[in-house]
Amino acid sequence: MDLQGIVDDIVHEVRPLLGEGAVASYIPGLGNVPADNFGMCVAMSDGPVHGSGQWQEPFSIQSISKVFSLALVMSYDYDSIWRRVFREPSGTPFNSMLQLEADNGIPRNPFINAGAIVVTDRLLTLTGDAARSVRGLLRKESGNPSVDFDDAVAASEAQHGHRNSAMAHLLASYGNLENPVELVLENYFNQCALRMSCEDLALASRFLARHGVSSGGTPFLSPNQSRRVNAVMLTCGTYDAAGEFAYRVGLPGKSGVGGGIVAIVPGRCAVAVWGPALGPNGNSVAGIAALDAFTTRTGWSIF
């Protein structure tokens, strides 16, 4: 199979879609990114990497970082986080607080904002520095020591993060935070403001395609833990459009409002795409189309 040719073709095919949707302007630090950017990278579990478009240009990974914070928490302490976060699709926007109060302060899953704040809080307890722990994992797995925070985006999120702040205080009121709200939010905003390219992101995600085996060849997660992270990505990774993503793409995936999406083909590869313009559910319009085309062309799907 000519994977490089397939990736090149897909990047060409999705170009007409780059005008659809809107860049996430509610975070001012993201609103200045040109909507016509697009990149794609496929990192095979056994080594080869195929990229096209702006696949080596860094962007803000935003909620994709939640996969790595969850993986880190599970690597340290597998079971305890699931007493504080559920594993069910939310059916509501990623920043909604409706279910949080109805469920007595237990977020519906670790990939909506409230759930990710709880995971960050747990990682902060386990490591003393949640954001830098995520950055360290991404640097190690991608092989790129320059992966870093975008301070301007982090400051922008902190300045406009009233809803996240409200969630964190509500979580604390239910006793579901172990650390001070301000410290948890600082780590959460920094984590979401990490910048990576499609190449970096695909390489960093390969442990989920290799059943938990890290870039160094040693286990980072057990095969069972890796499978469970992929399962939550499939059911909850693309906000309240996870059913549509499963139908069109058929892979575990996690999106971010920076326009990135990472998808996992267990046993084969990790795929990262980036198109800043988002659809109504906060997912990259061109990115989903590219992943749809990828699984259609290759026949690679968990189904």
Can you walk me through this structure?
- The protein is α+β, with helices and mostly antiparallel strands.
- The protein contains 13 helices and 8 strands.
- It has helices spanning 3-13, 65-76, 98-102, 113-127, 130-142, 151-159, 162-173, 181-192, 198-204, 206-209, 223-236, 242-248, 285-298, and strands spanning 39-44, 49-53, 59-60, 148-149, 194-196, 253-255, 260-265, 269-274.
- The strands form 2 sheets. It has a 5-stranded antiparallel β-sheet with strand order 2-1-8-7-6. The chain has a 3-stranded antiparallel β-sheet with strand order 3-5-4.
- Strand 1 (39-44) and strand 2 form a beta hairpin.
- Helix 2 crosses helix 4 (113-127), helix 2 crosses helix 5 (130-142) and helix 4 (113-127) crosses helix 8 (181-192).
- The longest helix is centred in the middle third of the chain and has 15 residues, at 113-127.
- It starts with a helix and ends in a 5-residue tail after the last helix.
